C-alpha cells in the first residue's frame, strides 16, 4: 500500500488581502497528477483543509473539485481530520454519508476511536481538539492542556488497538520542539499547546499537520508533511510538498511540489528597485524592504507598475549619523563645568544674572568654586 500524506492546504488563504485561490488550484492539480504517477492507494489529509472556519464559496468549490478528482473519479480512499483553522462542525456535515464513497472525515472526539480499516491497516483519525472540549467529553477537570487532551484520547484508543496489525495515527497538533512560522497564527500562551512525541510510541506511523515545514521534527515514526505552499514570507526556504509512505518496503519519502509563482524578499534602495537591481523575480509574490524612500510619493503604486505581484513594502530608515567628540574636563571646577555644558547645549554664554544664581546655589551646597 502507498499512502500520500498532505496537510495544511489552507484553501482560501490570502497574503495581505491577495487571494491565492488560483495558485492553490494549480498545486492541487499537480497533487492529482502525482497521485497517478506514484500509484497512490490512499490519500491522508492531516487538517487545515480550509484557511477559515467559514470558507468562501469559491474555496469550497475548489476542494470539492479536488475530492471529485481523487475520491470519485479515481476511487481512492481519502482520510481527513479537521484542523484548528477548519470549522469542525461545518466541515463534518454529512460525514456519515461520505463514508459510502470511502471519504472518511474525523471532526469530533468520538470519531477518533473507531479505526478506518483498509487492507488490514488501521487508521485512527484524531482531529484538532481544544482542552475544554476534551474536559467536557471525558468529564475530567484535570484536562487543562493539549498534552492532557491527546493523552486521554490516545489512552482510549490504545485500549482497543490490535498491535499485530499496522496502526497509523493521523492528527493535527503541535509536537513539542517543532518549528513555528508566522502562518501558524494561533495565539499560544507558553507551552500549553505542546504535545510530547512519546504519546505516539504505540503507532507504527504518525502523520501530522499544523506545522508548515516537513522538517519541523525529525523522527523515524512521526512525520509532518508541511503545508502545500508557502503561506508567509517567513516560510521562504522551507521545503513544500508531500510525503509518500510505502508500507510494502517501509520507505518514507518527501516529494517537492513546484510553483508557477513563489514568494521572495528583496532588499536594497528604492533606486535599486526601479532599476531592477534587487536580484528578485519581477513576477514573484514580493516583499520589498527599501531605503531612501523618504522623498517618494506613493512608492507602492509606482513599484507595482514594475512588480505587479508586490504584496508588502517595508521602508528601511537610514541610521542617523552620530559624531562623538571628546573633551578633557578634569581641570574645570563645578561652575565652569556647568557653564561649559550650558554653552554646548544652547550656543549661548551664561549672562550675569545666571552666573549669580549658579554661584549662590553652589555656595549654599558647600561647593568650592576653585579648580
Summarize the structure.
By secondary structure, this protein is α/β, with parallel strands linked by helices. The chain has helices at residues 21-37, 57-73, 88-91, 95-98, 131-138, 146-158, 270-274, 299-304, 334-346, 352-364, and strands at residues 2-6, 14-15, 18-19, 42-46, 78-81, 103-106, 116-118, 121-126, 166-172, 174-175, 194-195, 205-209, 222-224, 241-246, 251-256, 263-269, 285-291, 310-315. The strands form 5 sheets. Strands 6-5-4-1-14-15 form a 6-stranded mixed sheet. A 5-stranded mixed sheet has the order 7-8-9-12-13, with no helix packed on it. Strands 16-17-18 form a 3-stranded parallel sheet.
Written account of the structure:
The protein is 27% helix and 22% strand. A six-stranded mixed sheet has the order 6-5-4-1-14-15. A five-stranded mixed sheet has the order 7-8-9-12-13, with no helix packed on it. A three-stranded parallel sheet has the order 16-17-18. The protein has helices spanning 21-37, 57-73, 88-91, 95-98, 131-138, 146-158, 270-274, 299-304, 334-346, 352-364, and strands at residues 2-6, 14-15, 18-19, 42-46, 78-81, 103-106, 116-118, 121-126, 166-172, 174-175, 194-195, 205-209, 222-224, 241-246, 251-256, 263-269, 285-291, 310-315. Residues 185-190 have low confidence and may be disordered. Helix 5 packs across helix 6. Helix 2 (57-73) links the parallel strand 4 and strand 5. The longest helix has 17 residues, at 21-37.
Amino acid at each position: 500500500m502507498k499512502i500520500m500524506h498532505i496537510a495544511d492546504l489552507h484553501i482560501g488563504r490570502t497574503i495581505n488581502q491577495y487571494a491565492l485561490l488560483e495558485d492553490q488550484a494549480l498545486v492541487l492539480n499537480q497533487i492529482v497528477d502525482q497521485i497517478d504517477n506514484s500509484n497512490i492507494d490512499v490519500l491522508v489529509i492531516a487538517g487545515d483543509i480550509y484557511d477559515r472556519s467559514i470558507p468562501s464559496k469559491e474555496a469550497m468549490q475548489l476542494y470539492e473539485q479536488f475530492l471529485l478528482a481523487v475520491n470519485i473519479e479515481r476511487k481512492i480512499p481519502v482520510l481527513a481530520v479537521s484542523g484548528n483553522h477548519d470549522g469542525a462542525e461545518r466541515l463534518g456535515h454529512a460525514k456519515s454519508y461520505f463514508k459510502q464513497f470511502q471519504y472518511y472525515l474525523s471532526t469530533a472526539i468520538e470519531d477518533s476511536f473507531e479505526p478506518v480499516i483498509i487492507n488490514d491497516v488501521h487508521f485512527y483519525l484524531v482531529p484538532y481538539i481544544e482542552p475544554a472540549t476534551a474536559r467536557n467529553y471525558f468529564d475530567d477537570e484535570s484536562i487543562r492542556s493539549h498534552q492532557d487532551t491527546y493523552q486521554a484520547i490516545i489512552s482510549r484508543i490504545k485500549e482497543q488497538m490490535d498491535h499485530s496489525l499496522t496502526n497509523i495515527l493521523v492528527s493535527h497538533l503541535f509536537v513539542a520542539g517543532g518549528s513555528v512560522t508566522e502562518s501558524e497564527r494561533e495565539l499560544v500562551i507558553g507551552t500549553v499547546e505542546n504535545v510530547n512525541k512519546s504519546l505516539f510510541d504505540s503507532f507504527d506511523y504518525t502523520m501530522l499537520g499544523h506545522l508548515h515545514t516537513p522538517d519541523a521534527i525529525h523522527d523515524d515514526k512521526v512525520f509532518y508533511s508541511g503545508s502545500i505552499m508557502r503561506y508567509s514570507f517567513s516560510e521562504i526556504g522551507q521545503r513544500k510538498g508531500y510525503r509518500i509512505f510505502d508500507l510494502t518496503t517501509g520507505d518514507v519519502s518527501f516529494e517537492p511540489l513546484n510553483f508557477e509563482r513563489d514568494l521572495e524578499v528583496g532588499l536594497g534602495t528604492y533606486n535599486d528597485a526601479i532599476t531592477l537591481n534587487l536580484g528578485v523575480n519581477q513576477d514573484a509574490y514580493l516583499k520589498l524592504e527599501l531605503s531612501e524612500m523618504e522623498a517618494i510619493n506613493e512608492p507602492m503604486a509606482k513599484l507595482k507598475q514594475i512588480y505587479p505581484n508586490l504584496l508588502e513594502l517595508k521602508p528601511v530608515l537610514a541610521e542617523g549619523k552620530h559624531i562623538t567628540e571628546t573633551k578633557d574636563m578634569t581641570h574645570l571646577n563645578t561652575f565652569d563645568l556647568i557653564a561649559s555644558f550650558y554653552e554646548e547645549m544652547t550656543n549661548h554664554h551664561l549672562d550675569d544674572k545666571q552666573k549669580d544664581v549658579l554661584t549662590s546655589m553652589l555656595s549654599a551646597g558647600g561647593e568650592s568654586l576653585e579648580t
